[in-house]
Amino acid sequence: MFAVVGLLLVCYVLGDAPFEQVRTHVEWSRQNVDEDQPGKYFHESSFSGHHDGRFADRQLGYEERNDHLTALCHTYLSTMNDLGIETWLMHGTLLGWYWNRKVLPWDNDLDVMITEKSLYHLANYYNMTVYHHHLPELAAHGRDYLLEVNPHYAEGGEDSVNRIDARWVDMDTGLFIDVTTLRRNRTAKEGGEDALMVKDLHSYKFDDVFPLRISVFEDFPVRIPYAYADLLVNEYGENALVDMKYGNHRFDAERGVWVKQEYAGVVHPLD
Amino acid sequence: MQRNGTYGLAQAGDFDGTRFRGLAPSLLPGGVSDPNGERRLVFVGDIHGCKGELSALLRAVGFDTRRDHLIATGDVVSKGPDSLGVLDLLIQLGAESVRGNHEDRLLETYKTLRKSSETLPDTASQVESAATTSHGYHKDAVLLRQMKPAHLKYLREMPLMLRIPSLPQVAASTSEYVNHAVLVAHAGIVPHVSLERQDPYFVMNMRTIDRETHLPCSQPVEGPKDTKVRWFILWDTYQTRLLNANNINVPLVEPMVVVYGHDSKQGLQLHQWSRGLDSACVAGGRLTAMVLDAKGKEDMFSVPCQEYKV
């Protein structure tokens, strides 16, 4: 009984795993706990919403970020594949896949989903496990990645504060992948019997997501929702699949890559 | 016309299979092996497992395997009463079909079922339950379990698009006859985007297309203010323009007639550069065939269908 109460206190008061237990190279945790809503499990760093402050003390710059994100993606996909977890790309990461099978250069994070069954499998057997990956081009001695599952994972209802069910965290740079779960919609009748939902109440039709397609992302095998084009248009609007400009980036159709434009009074001939 | 018509630059989806197939030269009406111009091509719209209706339609066109070649526009299975019977008949007749969205879903589901039973052992039993999946997924899983390797092989070999060159014995001046190349695809094609860069998802699912961006959409036109038009309207405009350009210059791209299915709500759609053959057979409409002879002459045949699905 005591043990249960203690565990609950840890979950509700402290949130993600205590710094002392998981620390790597930074001297103190930069997690921004105070401004988060009470009960929120995963926190982000005070210097960036895309870094875990337990593992980093600074934000990665634009130029260096992409290599670390790619490694984050590779290690996540290969580990989930080894563990038999059904996972697929969503949101901005799916949009990057649609354009050129790569992370969008202006993206700070990666978005993936897993099935409920896979989430329970991770929670039951792999929570708080650390995976060492050899990354000869990025880290001479390899790099550790932490798989952390949100203890609220079994609560199926609406909970936008704890909509992130698990995190895949780079223990060197603090970059992470948020893992959300697509759940059977047990509460609301709306959307029909085939409706699936995420904890933040985003809902999807089963047949738009499944059967998952097999494709390639950042040169790794990956799964993609069945009706990828419809999902992307619903989420980002038609122009997301059409516009070759986004912010200060332009899609170079010949090379098939998004290129950052340096605006110094130079007008591109196609503008 | 295009404010930002850059659709087609993104890499878009993959196609696990044959993207294009050309009609075998021996099957071309008026081709090298048909000097007397006796051969015919018989195109048929979405069959959806309606085997009885398909047989009746073949009788109506006087189908003879020595002379005729059957080409289906996809969605030959699902919804109707006898998907396996239709596949058996198509195999027996040496018929071809392009891949429809229903075949695509079946093939992707097959890959999932095979894979998941390897990695998560207890998924195979659960996957067939409609309670944990969806009504459609459950039906597909059941149908897949009934299929023999020959059925799956036939589905897998369906190309995304089937190309038929212009018929050699058609006089170029006979404008009322089909005197251009024909492309068969299940749902539609985006004009101005090369066939190599068409997104397979849309080739098998599109109904409409945005006037300005040319982004296709699987939904129908929603009201008069919608910026979308039915895809074949835009296709027709473009092909006419290509033809006119050909009159003054060496053609860069040949205009083509697209034969398709998929859109049963629009029903039979016959336009200068497109033939929509899905006349809602499985919902109690008709099953339609377009017969093309060596002179480029088209004849339409159709038979009534039982109502299997509303």
From TrEMBL, chain A:
Chain segments annotated as transmembrane: none
Keywords: Membrane, Signal, Transmembrane, Transmembrane helix
Compartment(s): Membrane
Annotated GO biological process: glycoprotein metabolic process
Major localization class: membrane
Family annotation (PANTHER family): FUKUTIN-RELATED (PTHR15407), PROTEIN (MNN4), PUTATIVE (AFU_ORTHOLOGUE AFUA_1G03790)-RELATED (PTHR15407:SF32)
Official protein name in the record: LicD/FKTN/FKRP nucleotidyltransferase domain-containing protein
Coiled coil region boundaries: none
Leader peptide range in chain numbering: 1-15
Gene Ontology cellular-component terms listed: membrane
Protein topology in the membrane: Single-pass membrane protein
Family annotation (InterPro entries): FKTN/MNN4/W02B3.4-1, LicD/FKTN/FKRP_NTP_transf
Automatic annotation (TrEMBL), chain B:
InterPro entries associated with the record: Ap4A_hydrolase, Calcineurin-like_PHP, Metallo-depent_PP-like
A Pfam family matched in the record: Metallophos
Annotated GO MF terms: endopolyphosphatase activity; phosphatase activity
A single GO BP: polyphosphate catabolic process
Domain Calcineurin-like phosphoesterase stretches: 40-136
Lineage: Eukaryota, Fungi, Dikarya, Ascomycota, Pezizomycotina
Alphabetical list of PANTHER family matching this protein: METALLOPHOSPHOESTERASE (PTHR42850), ZINC-DEPENDENT ENDOPOLYPHOSPHATASE (PTHR42850:SF4)
Organism: Baudoinia panamericana (strain UAMH 10762) (Angels' share fungus)
Name assigned to this protein: Calcineurin-like phosphoesterase domain-containing protein
Source organism, top-level taxon: Eukaryota
Entry GO CC: cytoplasm
Membrane-spanning parts: none
Record SUPFAM superfamilies: Metallo-dependent phosphatases
